[in-house]
Amino acid sequence: MLKPRVAANKNIRNNNPLNIKESADWNGERTLNLDKTFEEFRTPEYGFRAGYIILLQYLERGQNTIESIVAKWAPANTDENNHTQNYINYVAGEMRLTANDVINPLILPEMMLHMSVFEGSQGFFTLEQSKRGAELAQQEDFVIARLNRLADVGYVVA
Known about the structure:
With 158 residues, this protein is mainly alpha-helical.
């Protein structure tokens, strides 16, 4: 008898590419909540959608480099044994940017994909899924307003 295949990594099992912790009532959350620490989404696109919304908020608050974004996302000074500098170096290297280059909303889908790999997906998710997640978010009035505010201060948003 064959055993069902179980994904080894939480971000894959939870359709939560960026390992977003339980925090809000997100669109696309699974009805049954089995993981009390991390969000669980119906599809990876909804997980990327949530990540995109959070990262836009970081940009709006001035956390607009790979270094500042990842340091906020996975801080080194926690009990979680985050490897923050390795995370920063990985994402910057994959994006062919420096850790201090300013991130524009247009490249967030690519950044989220690389973050998902560092979070444990090992290439399970695709850039198309990440882009679709950003597109889902961009249908929300509050996201459109945030993008407009970012454009007003010089970010490239379209």
